[in-house]
Amino acid sequence: MTQRFQGTVEDIAAAGKLLAAGGLVAFPTETVYGLGGDATNDQAVAKIFAAKGRPQFNPLISHLDSVEAARALGRFNDVAEALAAQFWPGALTLVVPRLPSCPISDLACAGLDTVALRVPAHDLARVLIQAAGRPIAAPSANRSGHVSPTEAAHVLADLSDRIDGVLDGGACAVGLESTVIDATGARPVLLRPGGIAVEEIEAAVGPIEVAGDDETAPRSPGMLLRHYAPERPLRLNALAPQPGEAFIGFGAHGAKNQETASLSPSGDLTEAAANLFRSLRAFDSGDWTGIAVMPIPDRGLGRAINDRLRRAANRDAPLR
Ligand code: TXA
Ligand code: MG
């Protein structure tokens, strides 16, 4: 059952509690409705992907109620500071390096060492984030392949009974997703055009680069969305480890005594998604010569897990 919340003090407190407990609550921002979950909780983030039915794990935006809260998660260079000062709260997302202490889920960042942050301009959004008391990961609140919702009714049409609640804040003012800027380097890079025009951004911080977004675009470093790949070779669909390899299991395949770790001993794909990037990172160190991963069923979230594993095994594959 999806609960409907209005913008009352009681409802916002209840919705914030749901989020803090790992539930999914859709909420209005000035751009589009977001499908919110605790950004620091791998399991909640895995449920976001499951609810959307996304066949890929794209990194998600973490939403904050203030610039200070954002600074506690990522490293802000001069460009990031200038953009935050000018456009936050607002329809701008900044991709910055994660701080070592950043508690955002590896799954929300798709294993990357960068994090996407936004302080939305919608009052209800910021009050809800405050009530939840943590950063809120939120892609647009629609099923994969559908258009982004700008009213609570659109959210319910797509996600009714797949999420725990929706906070109704009326129609979104902008109706277009946020502009995403990579602010990890000295020169900002446009990753996605959106609610704030490139011209406005250039007026604030000077010329920006535009990332190539298709496979035929020139592949200069930093121009494509990077994706996580371990340094050690990754071997997929493995039934047993070779000497020196870490062996990541899944389900009850009878190989337990050989497993270094399991993505989900019970064969639960949401749990496996929640553990995926952490497990890969954990064994990409020390004396392991490589990482072998057991076959993962190619259904539900398993499709997104397999997509990520294939890309991680082939580090040069472009990310769409
Ligand atoms: O307006 C919006 O941005 C809405 C509302 C709910 O805030 N959210 C939204 O989220 O559109 P989503 O998940 O659909 O889009 C996130 C965008 C994607 O283009 C993703 O590739 C990019 O942000 N992104 C997130 N983290 C990134 C990272 N670490 N590096 C590069 N790009 C990243
Ligand atoms: Mg979307």
Please describe what this structure looks like.
With 320 residues, this protein is an alpha/beta fold. The chain is 28% helix and 17% strand. The protein contains 9 helices and 15 strands. Strands 1-8-2-3-7-4-6-5-9-10-11 form an 11-stranded mixed beta sheet, sandwiched between helices. A 4-stranded parallel beta sheet has the order 12-15-13-14, covered by helices on one side. A hairpin with a 6-residue loop joins strand 2 (25-27) and strand 3 (34-38). Helix 1 (9-20) crosses helix 5 (123-132). It is globular and about 55 Å long. The structure holds threonylcarbamoyladenylate and magnesium ion.
Ligands in the model, by name, code or SMILES, are: threonylcarbamoyladenylate, magnesium ion
> How much of the sequence is in beta strands?
15-25%
Any low-confidence stretches, pLDDT <50, length ≥5? 213-223
Number of helices: 9
**Pattern of helices and strands:** EHEEHEHHEEHEHEEEHEEEEHEH
CA radius of gyration: 20 Å
The largest pleated sheet is described as:
11 strands, mixed
Distance between the termini: 34 Å
Shape: globular
**Structural class per helix/strand content?**
alpha/beta
What's the count of strands?
Answer: 15
Provide mean pLDDT, rounded: 92
Q: What percent of residues adopt helix (DSSP H or I)?
A: 25-40%
Q: Identify the strand order in the major beta sheet.
A: 1-8-2-3-7-4-6-5-9-10-11
Short description:
It is built from 9 helices and 15 strands. With 320 residues, the protein is an alpha/beta fold.
